Amino acid sequence: MLIGTSNAVKEKKFFDMTGLSLLEGRYRLHKEVSGGKSSTGFFGVDEETGRDVFVKFCIFPRSELERARFRNEASFLKERALFNGIIKKTPEYLADGELFDGKILYLVTERIHGTLLLDWLGEKFCNASLIDRLTVAYRVFGAAEHFSMFVTHRDLHPGNIILLNEDIDLHSKRPDYKTIILDWGQSYSRMHFEYSENDSDDMVTIHNGIGREITNSFYNLPPETFIDWEASGSEYNKYDSWAMGLLLYKLVTGKDLFSFKNIGEYAAAQKRIEWEVKFGLFDLSAYAASAAPILSALIVQLLRKDPKDRMFIQEARHALWFILVEDFMPSDFGMIQRFLDAPNYFDEVKWKHFDSEPFDYF
To answer: What is the C-alpha separation between 311 and 204, in angstroms, rounded?
Structure first.
């Protein structure tokens, strides 16, 4: 019999509590790994195919919102299957379901083998050149684009990003970023909300829960977190741009842009947040040399307080490509701003390699 609290389950060995070691007659659980705030994870193997798998459990969901978020991750990964056939950005969905009359939910995906970005920052950053670090940024920005599905991740940070141990081709007409984004439990789709048929749909529950509680990493929260959610209007799809601006700064400098002690201090700083951003960029030249002017401007564009003025991740990824491949590092601030307004249509320079956006070929 299961003990009726999630803490009681997590404090004891999962196998001992449930007698569960095999899901759906094929997914064998082997090793418990760290999970999220409301989940427990295991590495295992698919005994039918021999593939390594990752199994995530939501144990005794504390609310319908927590349950909806868990199911939403499974739904999103299933929908990604077609897109992953073009560019793989998420783990492959394998199975999901419920156990013990819905007291436990589970999700099975392939296990991704690679280097967690958090580990890369700790182990490889110091020996990486600026080009190496910007290449990592380019890969992450490419993997974080999900505009074709109108989905925002809402919890992008180095602990949710895996770099595959493979080289990328910056000149390919079909770019493959060799980067996988994990943990879609906080994700949100405005389109799915608008097309929901009844109030009990998971995306309606998630939409109604936005702004009522904060369960994602507070460091990455954009300023609109602290205002009426509806006030951001149609710019909800720039939510993740804020996290990417903070990540780009960290990949250039090795430091966090802000040093707020808690979420209250961060919320209080929102009145001056753009000043905090510009103050943090004063010494960027010490890390980026001649690339500092354009990288500073790019980070500022991603960290605009008003989401209407913020840059899309896709546009920022384009800008990084020009820096990396075309060696575009001007010092003229007017030229930089005109370039960032529309990187793919900037015609003041004769490019050596750029023809058109790769996806124009599809």
So the answer is: 27
